[in-house]
Design goal:
The chain is α/β, with parallel strands linked by helices. It is built from 11 helices and 13 strands. The chain has helices at 20-24, 31-38, 52-67, 91-98, 115-128, 152-155, 204-208, 218-239, 257-267, 278-281, 288-296, and strands at 4-12, 17-19, 42-44, 76-80, 105-109, 135-142, 160-169, 175-183, 191-192, 215-216, 249-252, 305-312, 316-323. The strands form 4 sheets. Strands 1-7-6-4-5 form a 5-stranded mixed beta sheet, sandwiched between helices. A 4-stranded mixed beta sheet has the order 8-13-12-11. Strands 2-3 form a two-stranded antiparallel sheet. The relative contact order is 0.19. The protein binds acetyl coenzyme *A (ACO). Residues 29, 33-34, 37-38, 112-113, 152-153, 156, 191, 216, 218-219, 221-222, 225, 255-256, 283, 285, 312-313 line the site of acetyl coenzyme *A. GO terms for molecular function: 3-oxoacyl-[acyl-carrier-protein] synthase activity; beta-ketoacyl-acyl-carrier-protein synthase III activity.
Length: 324
């Protein structure tokens, strides 16, 4: 059967670095607390005039430059994001416009930190069906637009960025083999931006109550993230008759170094096999997985077996198994 392989990668992060020392001047925190509790040293912050579609388009342009693929050959773009430029209209259309994808159609997909994993599975199905041969899957988020920089519980965690992969028909067994994706709306109460949507439209009161910012019960999210990613990876391993030792690399969502370490321990995977760049970028939500693929793709050899896993608001979570 046709399989969807990742044939090119691209990424973009803003130049502006917000390090822990700068955060010490903004909220009651310390570099030592942030590093020991999260593993994050610095994160990137987009300028006011740079929206999510701008970062996404720059990651696509980087991919096209790296691969020499003609923008007019792209047939579909799926943008995973929780921070579209506007509530109405889809940011994917803006990305197609800004990146010169004249013949592509596109749509947004919102599954928070699991967005890229969901979008990868959806994009792959267009390749597997034989309908398309060039599909872009992008994860991009401008978390600084929805983070309250007076709330130390959340502002130290997040950053801005975008990553993109190109899917095409795989050769010699390469490609996405299987995905296990889950969602559970019971988790919505533990991590959300409560206002600005149809449940609580913007009003003076919602703004005064700071309900347009990310709010979370960090400990509950922490525990569920470890359990969800571990269970999803075990499910994928089991149903593909894989032992942990068969896996060359684990690329996990970058939310907290302690979450990543705990998932590694529960799976008995040595930390050397787990890709980590949270120290440099923080949690960029839908962008963490493609930014990792962009950062580390030179380490992957053809035939390498890779597990991707993510957990995010919703709750949403899952794992995908691919052969590079
Ligand atoms: N600096 C200093 N102290 C802090 C800070 C900070 N930045 N943030 C919290 N604290 C304090 C708390 O107020 C608390 O103090 P208290 O005991 O006096 O109340 C203390 O540190 C310990 O708080 P905990 O919540 O127990 O700290 P924990 O070790 O759980 O770390 C954290 C908190 C980092 C938020 C962790 O729970 C976490 O990473 N959770 C998961 C978050 C996550 O992944 N969210 C995003 C999912 S992504 C998406 O879908 C958008």
């Amino acid at each position: 059967r046709l399989q969807a392989a990742i044939t090119a990668v691209g990424g973009f992060v803003p130049n502006n670095i917000l390090d822990n020392t700068s955060l010490e001047k903004m909220v009651d925190t310390s570099d030592a607390w942030i590093i020991s509790r999260t593993g994050i040293k610095e994160r990137r912050i987009a300028d006011a005039d740079m929206a999510t579609s701008d970062m996404a388009a720059l990651s696509v342009k980087n991919l096209l430059d790296n691969s020499g693929v003609n923008p007019e050959d792209i047939e579909l773009l799926i943008l995973a994001t929780s921070t579209p430029d506007h509530v109405l209209n889809p940011a994917a259309a803006l990305v197609c416009e800004k990146a010169g994808l004249k013949n592509a159609w596109g749509f947004d997909l919102n599954a928070a930190c699991s967005g890229f994993l969901y979008a990868l599975s959806v994009g792959a199905s267009f390749i597997e069906s034989g309908k398309y041969s060039k599909v872009l899957v992008v994860g991009a988020d401008k978390m600084s637009a929805i983070v309250n920089y007076e709330d130390r519980n959340t502002c130290v965690l997040f950053g801005d960025g975008a990553g993109a992969v190109l899917l095409g028909p795989g050769t010699e067994g390469a490609g996405l083999q299987d995905s296990f994706l889950k969602s559970d709306g019971h988790g919505a109460q533990f991590l959300s931006v409560p206002a600005g949507g149809s449940a609580h439209p913007a009003s003076t009161a919602t703004i005064e109550e700071k309900k347009h910012f990310v709010q979370q019960d960090g400990r509950t999210v922490f525990k569920n993230a470890i359990n969800g990613m571990t269970a999803a990876c075990k499910e994928i391993l089991q149903r593909n008759s894989l032992a942990v030792a068969d896996i060359d690399w684990i690329v996990p969502h970058q939310a907290n170094m302690r979450i990543i370490q705990a998932v590694g321990e529960h799976l008995s995977v040595p930390i050397e096999k787990i890709k980590v760049n949270i120290n440099r970028y923080g949690n960029t939500t839908a962008a963490t997985l493609p930014l990792c693929l962009w950062d580390f793709h030179k380490d992957f050899k053809p035939g390498d077996k890779i597990l991707l896993t993510a957990f995010g608001a919703g709750f949403t979570w899952g794992s995908s198994y691919l052969v590079w």
